[in-house]
Amino acid sequence: MSGHGNxxxxxxxxxxxLTGTADVPGDKSISHRSLILGAMAVGxxxxxxxxxxxxxxxxxRAMRAFGAEVTDHGGGSWSxxxxxxxxxxxxxxxxxxxxxxxxVRLIMGAMATSPITATFTGDASLNKRPMARVTDPLALFxxxxxxxxxxxxxxxxxxxADPVPVRYTTPMPSAQxxxxxxxxxxxxxxxxxxxxxxxxxxxxxxxxxxFGATITTEDTDEGRVITLTGQPELRPQTIDVPRDPSxxxxxxxxxxxxxxxxxxxxxxxxxxxxxxxxxTLREMGADLSYENAREESxxxxxxxxxxxxxxxxxxxxxxxxxxxxxxxxPVLSVVAAFAEGATVMRGxxxxxxxxxxxxxxxxxxxxxxxxxxxxxxxxxIVHGRGHGAVPGGAICASHLDHRIAMSFMILGMASxxxxxxxxxxxxxxxxxxxxxxxxxxxxxITRSDAG
Length: 451
Description:
alpha/beta; 12 helices; 4-stranded mixed β-sheet
């Protein structure tokens, strides 16, 4: 059962060419950070193009609970009247972050250096996910955490009354961990330093600088060293959220495997720490081009055009690229099923602790639909069957994971037999318009509760 309603069984069947323009929602990572940093600024931040999926709406509710004035003006236009760094009020109730690991981990960081206490929970999927990766570094600032066995939600964070600055090397490539530490460092004196051995998406660094924080990034022998000077007065911003490359991945990948397709996905954020999927697809032989390249709100943006690609080839994906495409491996595995030869994905242990064990979820579903998959602790290999050779016909489990659910719906669009899903409700957490958008392009998606 999903965290935001009853299960919605869905099915996706082989379709004709997908054509037209796919206006995907705003970037989820930037949407979360816009609300949180807006709440920590002094004055009014205006946001357009905010992703209005369940995950981001949960973060908006959380910022209200911490004392910020968050207003929905309609059409993706929002405003946030912030309370300043260190100005969070203690929430009266439990903070429910639904399915969002990004939301809960960033919010924990933002409040951990204020002398307040907050309790966090989420849906069944989020409550299984590890939080020690965030609470361990937050403890270095002086925050205390009390949760379930294994460092899991529900969890109460007691913020540090007298925080100290921290120097922290992230033990795994995680933008969520890095961002939580930087947000905590905002209300600590002196300089907080985060060292990444592998660079991850840098939206937090870009946006902190935009809001007026003093932050530097240097590539050294240790890795990427990010230094933040604490206790700034953040300035409110006007933010135009670019479209989400992780959401764009679904219409793009569908177009590549459905014969005759030609889909334009405009205004996509192409931050180099996020664009690994598109590089990988082109290496596989995808007919994927960038048009009208430009910069908006400090982020590189372009329009993506994806056309059917009959001669996709399996490749070994560069493990160094994993951090820049970690959320896109599930849908990449779908494209790999229609390629000739093996697609090898290594260095992806992080996939096992996402909303679900994404390697196991995709491997099981692909096998059920006639695709051979091998997998190990931090790797998996999809043995492609080539264009038009995936049998399909199985019912797959979404495991309360939006990206798993959408990936299997893409699989069905080019398989011989329809691919079904036990629950499509989690799609609403990040891509609430996925179903109507794909149908407008020509997809054949049905749900059992239709009518």
